[in-house]
Amino acid sequence: MEIIGFILLTSLLIRNYIKMPEILGLSKDNPKVKTARSSQILFLVFVIGVKLAPVLGLDEIFSSEINEKIYIGFYAVILMYFGNILPRMTLAEKTGINLPCYQFEKTSWRKITKISGYLFFILGFTMFILKFCFNLKQVYEVALEMIFFVLFVVSLICILTYYLKIIFLRRAK
Fold first, then answer.
1. 74-97 b/e with 16+ CB inside 10 Å = b?
2. Is residue 99's pLDDT more than 60?
3. DSSP-derived secondary structure for 96-152
């Protein structure tokens, strides 16, 4: 089952790389398309690397604890990378934070995407620092709690802005 997920994820990443201009609705030469494609390549290399490391025996070079710290470091760097890219994304139907209350409202979508990007960057940076200070179980627990915190903040902002928009529309009538 794991190999099927790996194949599906890899094929999806390759498909997204090829169709990135169509997904974003921009020309092939646009710098934002190039940035999105580079993030797809980074994620694809990471996924393939994690899958091939045990096959090639790269996981036996260091102890399992050091390998876990290396994996956490890679995850943290990817979170920081996407946290850095997310605030600069353009509004598209198929990218970014796609909650119902933000799909067609550009200013709200931009704000929630920036907030999410900053939170993901903070999460990645915190994971990277914590892997040196604490044992791996504590780092996983803190990372999981921070991911839930990011999801909670994004959902709370969505709900608040959606209901505030409804209240202001009713008062305007």
1. ebbbbbbbbbebbbebbbeeebbb
2. no
3. S---GGGSS-HHHHHHHHHHHHHHHHHHHHHHHHHHHHS-HHHHHHHHHHHHHHHHH
For the record, the structure tokens of 77 come out as: 């760097």
Q: How many residues does the chain have?
A: 173
3: which 2 tokens? 């190999």
Contacts of 30 (CB under 8 A, 6+ apart): 21, 24
The set of long-range contacts for 91-99, using a CB threshold of 8 Å and a minimum separation of 24, is 92/23, 92/24, 92/25, 94/23, 95/23, 95/24, 95/36, 97/154, 99/154, 99/155, 99/158
Q: How far apart (Å, rounded) are the C-alpha atoms in residues 140 and 146?
A: 10
State the chain's mean pLDDT as an integer.
76
Q: Residue 96: pLDDT above 80?
A: no
pTM of the model: 0.61
90 phi and psi angles, rounded to 5 deg: -95, 160
Nearest-angstrom CA–CA distance, 70 and 146: 20
The answer to whether residues 123 and 79 touch, using CB atoms and an 8 Å cutoff, is yes
- Decide: 85 and 39 in contact? Cβ < 8 Å: yes
**Residue 61 DSSP code:** S
